[in-house]
Amino acid sequence: MSDTTRSSEEVRLVPCEPGQLSPDELRTLFLFEKLTDDQLAWISEHGCTMHMTAGGTVIREGDPADLFLVLLSGTIELTRRVGQDEVRTNRTEQRGVYMGATNAYLRDDGVPRNYMMSTRALDDSDFFVLSAEDFGWMMREWFPMAIHLLEGLTIGMRNTQAAVSERQRLTALGALSAGLMHELNNPAAAASRATAALRQRVAGMRHKLAMLAAGKVDPERLVALVELQEDVIERAAKAKPLTAMETADREDELGDWMDERNVTSGWDLAPVFAQGGIDIDCLTLIEERVGTQKLLDQAIHWIGYALETEQLMTDIEDATGRVSSLVSAAKQYSQMDRAAHQWIDVHTGLDSTLVMLTHKIGDGVKIVKDYDRTLPEVPAHPAELNQVWTNLIDNAVQAMNGAGTLTVKTYREDDHVVVSIGDTGPGVPEELKKRVFEPFFTTKPVGEGTGLGLDISFRIVVNGHGGDIKLDSKPGDTKFLVRLPLTEPSSA
């Protein structure tokens, strides 16, 4: 019987009776095709078959890993639990794929061996089954050298990845915390400075008001002056912003006007009035309302203090608003108060990530947002996607060495939302493009990268969300394209 004939034959199974698969039938499975007749006979004697009806659970994540299974027919789905959610990692109908106690050959290190994921039959399925004990004995006895190599590779990589992943998380957390503290410090310091200056200006206003009162100002005129102050404040609130040249010209005009009328410290007051949108016509109106040259100086200073007070309160409002925005972005980024899985607008996570990385991006990188705001929400784990955006944006900034254009674009492609993160760096060489998603592979200098960022991103997008991530790179135009499905993965 030829291998081709064997592969096309359908094996009729009776649930779990040893010896139901003959050595010839076992040889049709790619896992066993190179074994000797004696080895196949041993497996046939120690194995059994299992039939699972559609919808049945073959193995359950967390249960003791006591079975090694090979798919003979049917379709299965593999899932892992993430928080409170069941996330599909794979779906296959390929005959010969294996699952279950695949690490049973590793030496006993005292750690309980449990299934790392669940397997469910999507339609009637059949399996060839070996106990974990038999599978482990078979591997250690028949392939001792290979097992030594696999043990070293598996345990070594496990330890290395655990240590590097932990260090990477701590490093990323430290960098984000430092950046956030830097961003918070700027508006906090600005608010503190404005508050101190405001205290001085309010004290000055009280002093000038006392001087006006001591000048025996007619009550009606004082009322008119107070009304004038309100008019000036309203005018300042509605004033159009001036260019730097216009501001300088306005300051010169105001300074000359005050100098001609012997207003003390007129050149110090001129920038305040110019910033408040006050012109010569307004100063003339103030002069007319005051009525006497004697009180003009006090009135100008009093209104100047009022303008500065308004400007300082606006500065404090802007600063505290910036702090509030940063805190909101940090909460959005961390997703601390949100469900693990939800329907999200991808732009929210992209914006919060950009805010969190502002300090790291720096002033030399121009950020271009090309968002399609009509895109529908997608089912996702937002905290995990924020980790993807962080890794991709961080890589883009490093590739540009702090100078260039970072382009974040979103658009729809069939039944997927696409997020493109591009940079104007030197690009990735053709021979390295296929390796960028490999664990521990990095193009960064020694000590500057762990090689896990893109691997983690790939697993989050592909395994965790049923999407896809690709690299499109040429000098001056490198893009990572993340495709996310618009619908929940099918459960059947």
Automatic annotation (TrEMBL):
Top enzyme category: transferase
Keywords, in A-Z order: Kinase, Transferase, Two-component regulatory system
Domain Cyclic nucleotide-binding: 31-135
SUPFAM superfamilies assigned to the protein according to its UniProt record, in alphabetical order: ATPase domain of HSP90 chaperone/DNA topoisomerase II/histidine kinase, cAMP-binding domain-like
One Pfam family per UniProt: cNMP_binding
InterPro entries: cNMP-bd_CS, cNMP-bd_dom, cNMP-bd_dom_sf, HATPase_C_sf, HATPase_dom, His_kinase_dom, RmlC-like_jellyroll, Sig_transdc_His_kin-like_C
Record Gene3D superfamilies: 1.10.287.130, Histidine kinase-like ATPase, C-terminal domain, Jelly Rolls
Keyword Transferase part of the UniProt annotation: yes
Bilayer-spanning residue ranges: none
Keyword Phosphoprotein: no
Any single biological process term in GO: phosphorelay signal transduction system
Stretches assigned to the Histidine kinase domain: 308-488
CDD domains in UniProt: CAP_ED
Reactions catalysed, as given in the entry: ATP + protein L-histidine = ADP + protein N-phospho-L-histidine
GO molecular function ontology, one term from the record: protein histidine kinase activity
SMART domains for the chain: cNMP, HATPase_c
This enzyme's EC code(s): 2.7.13.3
Signal peptide annotation: none
Protein name: histidine kinase
